[in-house]
Design brief:
41 residues, mainly alpha, 68% helix, membrane, transmembrane helix, transmembrane, Cyclic lactone autoinducer peptide
């Protein structure tokens, strides 16, 4: 039972880390946001 809990903890940690990496990579590769108010100071 302890092995299953440890395996679940490791898989959960890997899933969270992979999700964070994918979100960060998607944000970096996304096109830059368009400035709506270009004339405003």
């Amino acid at each position: 039972m302890k092995v299953l809990k440890a395996l679940l903890a490791v898989l959960t940690t890997l899933a969270v880390a992979l999700t964070a990496i994918l979100l960060f990579w998607q944000d970096k590769s996304a096109p830059r946001y368009i400035k709506i108010y270009e004339n405003e100071q």
